[in-house]
């Protein structure tokens, strides 16, 4: 088991709003570089995130903790921040004598150096680009180009951690709507895109998906450029490459929701000679698990004090204690949306704690073509406070079984597990509504 404490360089490639909409997850999308990365490494089939939104989910990667534990319960540019009691991934690796670099976005803090990055390349300070002018410096192609230039001109001599954050596939404001096409990406043919099985197959939704494919192509090309840069610098064999995203795609019933399309995320790992290529793992994995996994791989440290658990034993001859369940949550985004959820291999239980429409849509989805196509039907009825789904029989979570007597024992058990987790982690939601981060400013009197 040489992987433990092997001190690899670590390159973490992450993007916005991608979910698993890439070819190696059996989606009908052309992503040859990511499929090659999957062939050379490991694919996690059941990787889920802690929050169906950007900053809180990213905080879990950085700390190994749930958002309500580390404090980042809303967007970083909305005054939420990680409590300084928690070590972040770049800070923890810096303590282990890694050089730490940020290329592109991070969106877990307003100041990237507060996360522990020692070197921040242009664009890294931007946290939430939503317009063409704001996100220009964080385009995947430019981030990949900056990383290549760094390796060509100033290659590190010590083990290094490089975070490469791509803006794509975040929506941007386009006149009277939010979309993906800002003249920098090639739109696919709407008639030829793969429809979303959890949404009606409508022209406006297909157009949005066709626009998104241009951004996915840009992500794939940038991944190819990053891998080429590692090869050219003769670093590929000594580098753990991790590719992931923070939550599901920016469409209704995905981003902003705790249904599977909202909390599913790609996770690919490559480390030549240490992680067998072409392996696919179906174990439940949460993105809180990345923090302890990477640290154990770096210097052999086994972290028992964080919520995440290392999945490194899957690559070695150590015993792996498989997760029975994963948890997800949401508290604040562009409005209050308190949700807590628990998922097993077969069942999902979701508990809502506020009066909201049946399907919550973030502003960028609400003002999109896809959002407008379903807005009336998704926003006319109140959301039930309890939802239970049999994912084996109902993978698209349409049939709520929470009030079905035949499933009462399942609901009771998952509700018990959810409440026990909330109590164990001292979830502030148990004490009542959670005020916004700027509460003292908006209610000074």
From TrEMBL:
Cleaved signal peptide residues: none
Alphabetical keyword list: Hydrolase
GO MF annotations in UniProt: arylsulfatase activity
InterPro entries: Alkaline_phosphatase_core_sf (IPR017850), Sulfatase (IPR050738), Sulfatase_N (IPR000917)
Annotated Sulfatase N-terminal domain residues: 8-299
PANTHER family: ARYLSULFATASE FAMILY MEMBER (PTHR42693), ENDO-4-O-SULFATASE (PTHR42693:SF53)
Family to which this protein belongs: Belongs to the sulfatase family.
Protein name, per record: Sulfatase
Source organism per UniProt: Natronoarchaeum mannanilyticum
